[in-house]
Amino acid sequence: MEHLILPLVIFFPSIGALLLLLVPERQADTIRGVSLIVSFVTMLLSFAVYYWFDPVASGMQFELNQLWIASVGINFHLGIDGISLLLIVLTTILTVLCILSSWRSVTKGVKGFHISMLVLATGMIGVFCALDLFLFYIFWEVMLIPMYFIIGIWGGPRKIYAAIKFVLFTMIGSLLMLVALIYIYFEFHSLTGEYSFDLLQIMSMQVPYQAQLWLFAAFALAFAIKVPLFPFHTWLPDAHVEAPTAGSVILAGVLLKMGTYGFIRICMPLFPEATIAYLPYICILSIIAIIYGALVSMVQKDIKSLVAFSSVSHMGFVMLGLFALNQNGVEGSVMQMINHGVSTGALFLLVGMIYERRHTRMIADFGGLAKVMPAFSVFFMIVTLSSIGLPLTNGFVGEFLILLGAFKANVVYGIVAASGVILAACYMLWMYQRVVFGKVTNAQNEKLSDLSPREKLILVPIVVLIFWIGIYPKPFFERIEPAVKDVLTKINGARLSSADDGQDAAQMFIDESKEISTVVIDEGVTADE
Amino acid sequence: MTEYAYIIALLPALSFVLIVFFLRFKEFLAAGFSIAMIVIGWILSIVVLAETLGRGGEAYEGFFHITSFASLNFEFGILVDPLTAMMLIVVTTVASCVQIYSIGYMKGDPRFSRFFAYLSLFCFSMLGLVLANNFFMIFIFWELVGLTSYLLIGFWFEKKVAADAGKKAFITTRIGDLGFIIGLLMIATYTGTFNYGEVFSRVAGGAIPAGALTVALVFLFGGAIGKSAQFPLHVWLPDAMEGPTPVSALIHAATMVVAGVYLVARAMPIFSGSAEASLVVATIGIITSLLAASIGLVQNDIKRVLAYSTVSQLGYMIMALGLYGHDTALGHHSPGYYAGTFHLMTHAFFKGLLFLGAGSVIHAVHTNDIQEMGGLAPKMKTTALTFMIASLSIAGIFPFAGFWSKDEIVAAASYHPVFLVLTLAVAFMTAFYMWRLCFLTFFGKPRDQHRFDHAHESPRVMTWPLVFLAVLSVVAGWVGLPWLSQGFASFVFHGEAYHPHANWLLMAISTVVAVAGIGLAWLIYYKKKISADRLAERFRPIYTLLYNKYYFDELYDLIIVRPVLAFATFMWSFDNWVIDGLVNGIAKLTILWSDLKLWFDTWIVDGAVNGAGWIVQQGSALLRFVQAGAVQFYALFLLVAMVLLALVKFEVVMVTVDWPVLSVIMLAGIALLVLVSRTAHRAGPAEATADTGSVGVEKEE
Question: d(Cα A390, Cα A421) in Å, to the nearest integer?
Answer without folding.
Answer: 10
